[in-house]
Amino acid sequence: MKLAAVDIGSNAIRLQITNVTHYEDKTTFKKLEYLRFPLRLGMDVFHVQKISDKNRRKFVKLMKAFKLLIDLYEVDDYMVCATSAMRESANGKEIADEVKQDIGLKIQIIDGNREAELINLALWSYIDEKPYLHIDVGGGSTELNIYKNKQKIASKSFKIGSVRALDDNIPLSVWKSMNKFIEENITNKDKITCIGTGGNINKIFELSNPAKNKRYISPEKIKEIKEYLESFSYEDRINKLNLNPDRADVIIPASKIYLAAMTAAASKKMIVPDVGLKDGLMNVLYERNKIKKVVK
């Protein structure tokens, strides 16, 4: 069984195609294709509230390319989800309708709560009875989820994202709202562990040179990496640190968002599992096609 997931974010758009096999009661997921295209829809939307004509044309071309790959791999089922940039764009639905009509690719524009739910599906193997704060920082929004005893007790989406923060135009009231949400739902005695998802925390974790099989990082180490990155110019982050151009600028504001959430929670540790929305989409696809197979 072949499955495809497309994550249309504010800073980049990702396609993953996975082959699922069953052998001797064991299910194996093998990645066949992964593409990340740096189309920054959020830069348009967070400034002028709509996707520009230039980026609209590029987006439609990219969806055509993704649809061709989905067809060439003979995918059995797929999901395409768009997050904050398209849901806040005045012409987001119009563009999604154009793609559906002209290309035959159905795009679901999801809200922050649904986005968080999908990402959470990929996190269950990391969650036990202890308290956890899940922090997912995207280009346009940050989703927070709080768990106790393997139950989600609170969840909220905030218009705080790495692309949105580039110009330091996030209102102080939004930052205060995020801190208030954390402080109201977490007590100091909880000694909460954070779980960080998103491309920027994965890169920060990689830059920290973690020990083999280690999947966690401290706020002190995140701050150290942030200060290290700030010591380079944007051009040097690309040429000396080998960061992608669309990562080299947003990684610093993203690190500030993670640190702000960890500080509000008084957390001393963050697990970085390297999963995201596309992994949650794969989970949904697998479950619904497993059911179809049983029904047949």
UniProtKB/TrEMBL annotation:
Top-level taxonomic group: Bacteria
TM stretches of this protein: none
Coiled coil ranges: none
The protein's name: Exopolyphosphatase / guanosine-5'-triphosphate,3'-diphosphate pyrophosphatase
Domain Ppx/GppA phosphatase N-terminal: 29-282
Organism, as annotated: Belliella pelovolcani
CDD domains in UniProt: ASKHA_NBD_PPX_GppA
Record GO terms (molecular function): pyrophosphatase activity
